[in-house]
Request: fold
Amino acid sequence: MNETEPETDAFSRVIIALLRGVVYMENDPKLWQHLLDLQARARDYVAVMGLTLMLDEAEGYAWLQTMSAPEGTPPLPRLVGRRQLSYPVSLIIALLRRKLTENDAQGSDSRLIISRDDIVEMTRTFLPEGSNEARLVDRIDAHINKILDLGLMRRLRGQDKMFEVRRIMKAFVDAQWLSEFEARLKEYRGHLQEAGAAAGGEDAEHAA
Reply:
């Protein structure tokens, strides 16, 4: 514990930071060290509120997760709200999570940097053909902003159209969720292709 800061103040800073959202080692190394030093006490404290401290020391992030209520016990009111994600936001998150896995497999760089244009191109495959380009980009910008609000990406300083995918994406999207979502993506893509083929057939009939 840092001798210049009382333990009570350090503990308060840790709890407040966790209640506000994800705590990253790189954002505040001093706060992160306090969290490591006080994590047992923090776990006991947040457990009273029905929360669990999730901490990945290797990746350098921590967050609070709502505990599951024991069977037959009514759940406590949620302190950490559950966020409903739209299909396009879930789609982009799944694609970025897969990209992060591929980046890790290559072992070249632990940071995944991606441009807005790359995200647009990844997403375009799963959207109906013929979408207005400007409108498509505007919609994807809105979805990106939602993902930024979730803390799963951050904008690079001085580069509005470049983003870093945060490592917590791996915890937010586990392998099972990704596998199930990719199965739905495959099915959805098949529907799009069938719809496109049907539309092409109708156009040919009209031309004839």
The chain has two domains: 7-66, 87-202.
